[in-house]
Amino acid sequence: MREEILLNLDNPRQLEKLYRDNKPSFKSAFNALYPQLGSNSLADFWYQRLNFDQEDLYWGTPGERVFVLVASLLAALLAKLPELFSLNAELFFQRNAAFIVFPILTAYFAWKNRLSLKNMGILAAVFLLTLVFINALPQNQTSDTFVLSCIHLPIWLWAFLGFAFGGGKLKNWENRLGFLRYNGDLVVMTALLLLAGGLTTAITIGLFKLIGWQIEKFYFNYVVICGLAAVPIVGTFLTQNQPGLVNKISPLIANLFSPVVLVMLVVYLAATVFSGKDLYHDREFLLLFNVLLIGVMALIFFSVAGTSSLSKNPAQILILFLLSAVTLLVNGIALSAVLFRIAEWGITPNRAAVLGGNLLMLAHLIFVGIRLFGALTRKTDLSLVGKTMAVFLPIYSLWGGVVTFLFPLFFGFK
């Protein structure tokens, strides 16, 4: 390795190739040679590059750490409200689970991005009015419109989190893509925190069992619930202050799983045909189909939003294009099943909600597929895929707002 370095010291391209082929050996050999190289600017550059000491991890400003601590305690307190005030826990969380997380995260980004008082006031008013509305709905857990409102409420609030994340700049599509990347990173970080928390929980309960103490109920009621409420806040803090921890993991996971999901989806569609399952009459199977559709669409979006090198990887673009085409087929099947059920048994809140969501995803998939095909044939730039994704994000949240606020009124709270 030493001889190769000496031979190519004036050839930066070949030197870079040697480094990438075997980084540990290159570093060891170069450091041994460096004292012999004298005053050579290229050698000085490589020495600094190879021996740069990583700076200490940055844990935010003191004010930010205090904010996260107070916000985590507030989230934990909100999660304990049913117990403190003897409320129906199932109904409380069904209505208010989103309010434990979204307002606090929105406040964090509003504070961090120094939103104007006017914008902060608008955000506060939206959250307050939404909170009043969802808790004013009749307490009927069997009501379809009530359940739909609770399910679509986070989609509505998600838009205002994105508004705060982007610093109030509504028209900046790059901020919207950054928001998608943040969501992907947060999912990864949350999974890591939950894994660490689960391991800690198992060890703690096991250790106390050894001395005859049964702490499961206490630990779950106070540590686990409060910890779950704080995880999104802590995860957000880490993703914003330690981007190097996960910003490469999210696109890596998405890119690794894209071909796997593509094969799985094709096999699943073929198996569905031979299984004899009737998508048009089996309501649960149709629901599973739509959940699958949402998951695959999220994978496509995070794959595009989470990487900047995709434009140089035609194979990955091809996989995403094929995945979008197969997902479009899945969407078409699900949409035809919904239309069949409406034609046979009439319109219901659930069918209307699924129909609207499927039509929206169909339009989005068509546009994304066209842009991916353009990038694949090099007729358009991959950035247009990102713009297409960004354009549709507010539309999803608007649809969430329609289902949350208008469906109960349109269908008489049924």
UniProtKB/TrEMBL annotation:
The chain crosses the membrane at residues 66-85, 92-111, 117-134, 146-166, 186-208, 220-240, 252-273, 285-305, 317-340, 352-373, 393-413. It comes from the Bacteria. Keywords: Membrane, Transmembrane, Transmembrane helix. This is DUF4153 domain-containing protein. It comes from Larkinella terrae. The lineage of its organism: Bacteria, Pseudomonadati, Bacteroidota, Cytophagia, Cytophagales.
